[in-house]
Amino acid sequence: MTTTQQPAIEVAGLRKSFGGHPVLRGIDVNVPAGTVFSLLGPNGAGKTTMVRILATLGRLDAGRVRVGGFDPMRQPDAVRRIIGVTGQSSAVDPVLTGEENLRLAGRLLHLGGGETARRTTRLLKQFDLTEAAGKRTGSYSGGMVRRLDLAMSLMGDPGIIFLDEPTTGLDPRSRRELWSVIRALVSEGVTVFLTTQYLEEADQLADRIAVLDDGRIVAEGTAAELKKLAPGGHIRIGFADEQGLVAAANALPSAEADLEQLVLQIPSDGSVGDIRRLLEHFDDRDLAIGQLSIHTPDLDDVFFALTGNSSKGAQL
């Protein structure tokens, strides 16, 4: 007999309206345990509303939701015992030290003095904050504050963590350091539900990505699967002179020639087979090519194609 592990998060037919305006229009999502699930969408798409409902901070109008097997509406205390939440606004008190912030989180969870002390020591080490433990967090860098914020959400040893744009405002180095922390948590079996305004972040971290637009999931899959949904993949080939470019363009009617830059752009998925066939095509016609580069759609292209909004510089 085979058994299947229960999803960490189950959402079916989730609906929510405010003042008669529908925000979530029948959402279906399943998040396997021990994975990273990323929710992307333009501002106002309903991401925060969905996270609030899953984290027991909002109520649904219709549908079925389970977090760790529990109903957030009927069993909020059971859900809160197994989740951690790191929001856009930091929960860190800048007047307290790093250690004091963690101890405060332990007291709020009623862990007891001994257990709070043990977990504080472990989390300070895990998040590379031991040396700064005695310093007021008002003096911390942005990256240190976000690491401490995440550490505080882990004080209760949650199996499921909701991260709402956790790296917003961080410099690239701090962002990548936090990515490493998230990957380490997942390797230990923690489930992460991530919203982010950085498409690269979803690409780097998420096992599965859902694109939310106008209250509906318009696409879901791995990053690689989603990238296949966007048009625009092509191979760019540079030529030494206009004569070679024109000859190549005549040989490939589907290609687009740029006479100014001496570049030919050929629609392609960038696969090895596509490249081989193209080179053989030029070889047969004795056409010498210069530089060759491949462009495959990224999540920016996917986001624009699916939502009709430019994701660059937008808050998702």
Distance between the termini: 43 Å
What's the CATH first level of the largest domain?
Answer: Alpha Beta
CATH superfamily of the largest domain: P-loop containing nucleotide triphosphate hydrolases
Characterize the main sheet. Answer: 6 strands, mixed
Principal-axis shape: elongated
CATH fold annotation of the largest domain = Rossmann fold
Strand content bin:
15-25%
State the secondary-structure class.
alpha/beta
Q: Strand arrangement, largest sheet?
A: 5-6-7-3-8-9
Task: State the order of secondary-structure elements, H for helix, E for strand.
Answer: EEEHEHEHHHEHEHEEHEHEEHEH
What is the second-level CATH architecture of the largest domain? 3-Layer(aba) Sandwich
- In total, the number of strands is 13
* Helicity, as a percent range: 25-40%
Total number of helical segments?
11
Whole-number mean pLDDT: 87
Provide the domain count.
2
Can you offer a commentary on this structure?
The protein is of the alpha/beta class and 316 residues long. It folds into two domains: 9-227, Rossmann fold (3-Layer(aba) Sandwich), CATH 3.40.50; 234-295, Alpha-Beta Plaits (2-Layer Sandwich), CATH 3.30.70. Helix content is 35%, strand content 24%. It has eleven helices and 13 strands. The strands form three sheets. Strands 5-6-7-3-8-9 form a six-stranded mixed sheet, with helices on both faces. The protein has a four-stranded antiparallel sheet with strand order 11-12-10-13, covered by helices on one side. α3 (98-108) runs parallel beside α5 (142-153) and α5 packs parallel to α6 (172-187). The longest helix has 16 residues, at 172-187. The two termini are 43 Å apart. The model is unreliable at 310-316 (pLDDT under 50).
